[in-house]
Structure formats: structure tokens, C-alpha cells
Design brief:
two-stranded antiparallel ribbon; 6 helices; about 70% helix; about 180 residues; 2 domains; single chain; elongated; mainly alpha
């Protein structure tokens, strides 16, 4: 279980970073948009508001739809940063343009990290989903012992009434305990 706990902590840390960078990328792209022309200021504010909402929703780990909103935020802000980076480089602002290009590219990389199966299962199902993706093979399920609540990887088709928990020694099938007490 120690491995699961450390992996859960790593996922929490990665999630905090993802949430922070959704907001930072969004605000940076909104600032770039808003600073281009007076007419673009309102678009910049709208862009900033969208990314703020996306970052807050994403940080709450609601569901798969919210995860997609976070990805959309990354894609939109990365596209703006990349395109304005190219525009600024072609205008002669080499350092500024290069920095925007780098921010745009890293935003795309962060989008791909959200697609990691372990991160996705942790995001949608918490530690249980992470345990399922880490421990179980395709024919296994994660179940808890009815006596000591230890998490176990179980092959349901191979389970019998005589199976006992490796941690506490109690039967894994509660009906087996009832039958033994009746006899």
C-alpha cells in the first residue's frame, strides 16, 4: 500500500502543477491578446475569465468533462502563445517571440500528460481508480477484505468460499463465515 500512497501523492502534486499552469498559460495568453490593440482588450478579459473558470473547475477533479475543459484551455492558450510567438519573431522581436513559442510548446506537452491512463483514472476515480490501474490485470478487480478492509487484487472467476485474506486470515466471502458458524 506504500507504493499506492506515494503514487497518490505524486498525482496530487502533478495535479496542482497542471491546475496552476492552466491558469498561468491562460492569463499569459489573455495578456498577449489584450496588449495587441485597444479592440482586443475585451477579448483578453474574456479569455482570462474562461481560463480562470477552467483552472478552478479542473482543480476540483469533478469528472471527465471538466478534464476536457482543462485540456481545451491548454490547447487554446498554447495556440495563441505559439501563433503570437511566430508573429513576434517575424516582426523582429526574437527573444519575446521565442519565449512565447516555448510556452506554447510546453502547453501542448502538458496536454498530453493529462492523457496518461494513470492520471486519468486518478482524476476521475481517486485512489481507487489509481489502484485499479496500477495493480490489476485485465481479469482482476480491486476489492477490500470485509474484515480488515485491506485492498486486494481478486480474480472473481477463481474465487471460492474457502479463500482467506492474506492479511487477517478471515474468509473473503462473508457467507462462508456464516455457514461455518451455523455448523
Amino acid at each position: 500500500m506504500d507504493g499506492l500512497h506515494s503514487m497518490d501523492e505524486q498525482m496530487r502534486k502533478a495535479h496542482r502543477q497542471q491546475s496552476l499552469f492552466i491558469a498561468l498559460n491562460g492569463f499569459t495568453s489573455a495578456w498577449v491578446l489584450g496588449s495587441m490593440h485597444e479592440m482586443m482588450v475585451m477579448l483578453g478579459y474574456a479569455f482570462a475569465a474562461f481560463h480562470a473558470v477552467a483552472a478552478v473547475l479542473f482543480s476540483r477533479r469533478a469528472n471527465l468533462v471538466v478534464m476536457r475543459i482543462g485540456q481545451l484551455s491548454y490547447v487554446l492558450s498554447s495556440t495563441v502563445l505559439f501563433l503570437f510567438g511566430v508573429l513576434w519573431i517575424s516582426s523582429g522581436l526574437l527573444l519575446d517571440g521565442a519565449l512565447l513559442l516555448i510556452l506554447g510548446i510546453f502547453g501542448v506537452i502538458r496536454t498530453r500528460r493529462i492523457e496518461d491512463p494513470r492520471y486519468r483514472s486518478w482524476y476521475t476515480s481517486g485512489s481507487t481508480g489509481l489502484a485499479q490501474s496500477m495493480l490489476a490485470r485485465s481479469n482482476e478487480v480491486i476489492a477490500s477484505c470485509p474484515s480488515c478492509t485491506s485492498l486486494l487484487a481478486i480474480v472473481v472467476e477463481q474465487m471460492t468460499a474457502n479463500d482467506i485474506c492474506p492479511h487477517c486470515g478471515e474468509p473473503l466471502v462473508p457467507s462462508a463465515l456464516s455457514k461455518a458458524e451455523q455448523e
